[in-house]
Backbone:
């Protein structure tokens, strides 16, 4: 036997024509191919999952980057707005004050924040950098002064901002210079007005590359900042290329084609579009490591399986060689069994056809199916045909299918019947079927050839049909008859669909659903409910189906989001019904889809309103209680809990009278809060006594207002404030008002006195009753009344308070009393002016002294300028020249400008300076100090003179706040003139 096997399998196969065989793929080949296909599919799935994961990570990083960038820009703009508001409110910008704030800052992207105000003696703007990054102060002066003047776009923007009176940003990119390299930037100007006039401009500069870098942090995200111009084009402000703003993408269209996240910003009147794109789209490798390992392992296992199958085939061939002899010996037995085998084959084919037919019917129980003879004669029908066509299956069996199809569609029907019968390939065709009433129903039918029962006969055809998206015009309903259910389904105003419960595919849809989601019927029939459902709600319908199937229920209802064809999100209410067959098995799901987007928007808006109301009530400084008709608390804000020293849980549900009872009211029925609900009127009470949760008693002011709904009182709202501090403040105010030594008065807005203290009565000489009976304007000198009226009007209108005024008051005896007055406004809780508070300080002695001093100064100036003796006034430790007369200027041959503010020692010969310096140090108000020196003068020739120094402005104690020295200079031949006193006869 071994020799026979060796001769049969070990010999080289013959290469003759009789032994040449065409190669055909065997089991090993197909096993390897299938294993390789599965490996490739698994690898592709892992790659897709990895790509989706990286896309989600990028989206999260991009959103965080865009949020950080937009918040940084908004914070800088808000800083410029706040600075402008402070300056408009009266804040002054002192350059010395901001010496410490101009140090380098690490603020995100801020280059500098500067204040620009007009120079008093120049047309230029003085630039004060307030906050600046490294080198930002220099950049502010250079850029805002247009040095170099090669780009004046920001100066044009400055003019535009001043004309508009609103913050305006530059059009396009502004290049700064950092370390000699250009960097992209953006400048915005915020004009500031004060008292109706232009006060200056706040300049804000943002370095875009640093702002984008800080926003990116360590995320692999690139930022492109575009600005939309007035003509609709897009200007690139910053990109991930170089510092000069040149990037690999210079147009938004290039970014729209790739993966990106976008954010629109309104920056100082300019529209920005910021794109966040991945730094490296291929980051992570073309194929992840775990997918690569799966691919390698799959290829190896596929090869191993193919090798094992090949080995099995080799062993089978060895065994088949051994069996060839046995087959030759059993050939006679085969002939005897041929008849029996043919019989069994026919029975097996018939059984196979029946089983295939049953499986097909079970899989498509919700569709129409039929078994046709090769010539198209109907052999068997499902019960659903009677539902659709209105004819019993018994009346249709044995008739050609073409009798139920229009003649113009016979060619399509014959193609669908002949093709599978001839070549065995299944065919799908669309043609209409006519029902008992003559109406047409367009069907999408699949024709499949069944295995033949005998080898000498052709196989039957299996027909499976379902309604297609194409629908014929609906027939007009006859009076007294119901419309066909297809017409009701198609004409329904609510979206309706039938889904396969296993795959989720759409089986039937109506036009209302197509209008709702924006797809055509043929497009929806190729989709499923998962394709329509928002990714975040994919689980909703599936979970409902699982729960209903487990509980044997037939209906469900779920709210979820659909995606419109345009990408718009639609909220829908899906009401589903499970359709079961006679055995209770689920065949499909019929759903009604109703658009509830508007309802969801209203619910969201209502939720936001309620939340905003809660935030507003809890943010209120006053205690607010909501009461029902029995006086029970149904709402208490945070201020109410703090006022009563109680938790919210211990307040709500309690009667407010019991919580606050301090023994003031014996009967709750006479409590003003109950009276307000009974009388439907607002009740107020000042200085009421109540009790806190800790037992302490406090004074409160409260207002109770009824809540009326449909002419029915449903409760009340109580607003309560602690009046303890107010009463203490009023007591302190009365004490300060009456006892202060400065004259004070409260004046109503109509100009009448409301109250005056004793100091004001003593200053004006009027009794308090007489003063309160007269208008406040009559107390002022007629020449000061107009200025007082304008100042009061400006304060009452809420403008900046005026500076203290020096005004003349008319004394009762007819004289004048000078007073330094200041005015402030007292407002009520609603912010409306209630009355004016005037303070008047007596400055009459100072005014008398100033008048006498001015007269004395005029006399001294006349004597000083007209004196024949050369004289000069010196001040300060260096004895600088403050004033000279004509005689001194003639003696020195100098002009006023040459002598003004010069140290007097510079006019003396160097050899004589020590002598004069000693005399200057020893001069006093009583005894003059004299010496002989040489004057250089402006001519350069020394002139010998006699100098006498006297101190002016010292008191008797020898001290003076700012003493002056008087120097008299005489030539040697006129020394006797020095003994004459200044101004003497």
Residues:
């Amino acid at each position: 036997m071994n020799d026979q096997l060796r001769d049969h399998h070990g010999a080289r196969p013959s290469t003759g024509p009789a032994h040449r065989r065409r190669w055909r793929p065997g089991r090993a080949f197909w096993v390897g191919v299938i294993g390789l296909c599965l490996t490739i599919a698994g690898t592709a799935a892992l790659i897709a999952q990895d790509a989706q994961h990286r896309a989600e990570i990028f989206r999260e990083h991009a959103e965080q980057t865009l949020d950080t960038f937009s918040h940084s820009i908004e914070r800088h703009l808000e800083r410029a707005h706040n600075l402008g508001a402070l300056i408009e409110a009266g804040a002054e910008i002192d350059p010395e004050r901001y010496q410490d704030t101009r140090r380098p800052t690490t603020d995100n992207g801020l280059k500098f924040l500067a204040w620009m105000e007009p120079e008093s003696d120049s047309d230029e703007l003085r630039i004060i950098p307030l906050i600046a990054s490294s080198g930002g102060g220099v950049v502010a002066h250079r850029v805002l002064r247009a040095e170099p003047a090669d780009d004046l776009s920001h100066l044009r923007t400055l003019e535009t901002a001043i004309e508009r009176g609103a913050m305006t940003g530059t059009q396009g990119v502004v290049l700064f210079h950092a370390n000699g390299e250009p960097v992209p930037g953006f400048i915005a100007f915020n004009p500031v007005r004060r008292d109706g006039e232009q006060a200056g401009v706040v300049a804000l500069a943002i370095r875009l590359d640093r702002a984008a870098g800080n926003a990116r942090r360590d995320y692999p995200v690139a930022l492109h900042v575009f600005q939309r111009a007035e003509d609709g084009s897009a200007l690139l402000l910053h990109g991930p290329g170089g510092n000069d703003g040149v990037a690999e993408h210079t147009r938004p269209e290039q970014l729209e084609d790739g993966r990106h996240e976008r954010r629109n910003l309104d920056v100082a009147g300019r529209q920005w579009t910021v794109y966040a794109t991945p730094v490296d789209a291929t980051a992570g490798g073309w194929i992840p490591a775990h997918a690569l390992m799966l691919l390698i392992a799959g290829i190896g296992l596929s090869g191993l399986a193919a090798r094992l199958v090949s080995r099995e085939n080799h062993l089978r061939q060895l065994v088949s060689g051994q069996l060839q002899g046995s087959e030759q010996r059993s050939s006679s037995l085969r002939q005897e069994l041929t008849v029996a085998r043919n019989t069994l084959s026919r029975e097996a084919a018939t059984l196979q056809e029946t089983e295939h037919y049953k499986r097909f019917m079970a899989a498509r129980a919700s569709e129409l199916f039929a078994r046709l003879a090769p010539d198209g004669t109907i052999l068997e029908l499902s019960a659903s045909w009677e539902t659709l066509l209105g004819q019993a299956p018994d009346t249709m069996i044995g008739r050609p299918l073409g009798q139920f199809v229009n003649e113009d569609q016979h060619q399509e029907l014959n193609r669908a019947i002949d093709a599978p019968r001839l070549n065995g390939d299944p065919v799908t065709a669309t043609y209409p079927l006519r029902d008992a009433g003559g109406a047409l129903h367009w069907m999408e039918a699949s024709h499949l050839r069944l295995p033949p029962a005998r080898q000498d006969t052709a196989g039957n055809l299996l027909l499976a049909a379902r309604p297609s998206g194409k629908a014929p015009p609906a027939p007009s309903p006859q009076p007294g008859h119901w419309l066909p259910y297809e017409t009701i389904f198609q004409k329904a105003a609510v979206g309706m669909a039938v889904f396969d419960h296993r795959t989720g595919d759409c089986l039937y849809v109506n036009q209302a659903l197509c209008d709702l989601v924006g797809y055509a019927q043929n497009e929806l029939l190729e989709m499923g409910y998962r394709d329509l459902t928002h990714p975040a709600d994919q689980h909703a319908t599936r979970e409902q189906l699982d729960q209903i199937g487990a509980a044997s229920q037939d209906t469900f209802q779920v709210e979820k989001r659909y995606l419109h064809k345009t990408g718009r999100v639609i909220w829908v209410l899906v009401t589903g019904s499970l359709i079961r067959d006679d055995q209770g098995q689920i065949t499909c799901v019929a759903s009604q889809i109703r658009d509830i987007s508007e309802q969801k928007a209203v619910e969201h808006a209502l939720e936001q309103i309620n939340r905003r109301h809660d935030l507003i009530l809890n943010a209120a400084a006053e205690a607010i209680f909501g009461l029902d008709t029995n006086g029970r608390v149904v709402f208490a804000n945070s201020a109410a809990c703090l006022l009563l020293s109680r938790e919210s849980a211990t307040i709500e549900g309690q009667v407010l009278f019991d919580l606050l009872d301090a023994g003031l009211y014996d009967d709750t029925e006479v409590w003003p809060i109950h009276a307000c609900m009974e009388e439907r009127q607002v009740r107020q009470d000042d200085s009421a006594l109540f009790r806190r949760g800790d037992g302490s008693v406090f004074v409160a002011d409260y207002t109770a207002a009824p809540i009326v709904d449909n002419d029915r009182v449903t409760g009340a709202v109580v607003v309560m404030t602690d009046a303890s501090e107010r009463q203490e403040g009023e007591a302190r105010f009365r004490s300060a008002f009456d006892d202060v030594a400065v004259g004070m008065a409260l004046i109503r807005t109509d100009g009448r006195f409301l109250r005056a203290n004793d100091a004001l009565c003593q200053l004006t000489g009027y009794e308090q009753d007489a003063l309160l009976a007269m208008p406040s304007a009559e107390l002022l000198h007629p020449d000061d009344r107009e200025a007082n009226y304008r100042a009061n009007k400006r304060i009452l209108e809420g403008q900046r308070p005026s500076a203290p005024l020096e005004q003349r008051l008319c004394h009762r005896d007819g004289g004048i009393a000078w007073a330094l007055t200041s005015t402030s406004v007292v407002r009520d809780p609603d912010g409306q002016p209630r009355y004016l508070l005037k303070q008047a300080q007596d400055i009459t002695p100072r005014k008398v002294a100033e008048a006498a001093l001015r007269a004395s100064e005029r006399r001294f100036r006349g004597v000083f300028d007209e004196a024949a003796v050369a004289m000069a006034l010196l001040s300060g430790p260096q004895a600088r020249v403050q004033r000279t007369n004509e005689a001194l200027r003639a003696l020195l041959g100098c002009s006023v400008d040459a002598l003004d503010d010069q140290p007097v020692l510079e006019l003396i010969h160097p050899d004589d300076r020590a002598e004069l310096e000693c005399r200057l140090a020893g001069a006093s108000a009583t005894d003059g100090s004299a010496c002989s020196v040489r004057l250089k003068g402006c001519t350069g020739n020394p002139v010998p003179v006699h100098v006498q120094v006297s101190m002016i402005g010292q008191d008797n104690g020898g001290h003076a706040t700012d003493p002056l020295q008087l120097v008299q200079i005489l030539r040697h031949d006129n020394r006797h003139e020095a003994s004459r006193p200044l101004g003497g006869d």
User: Anything to note?
Assistant: The longest helix spans residues 27-88. The chain has six domains: 57-278, 367-472, 482-619, 621-726, 740-842, 859-979. The chain has a mean pLDDT of 76.
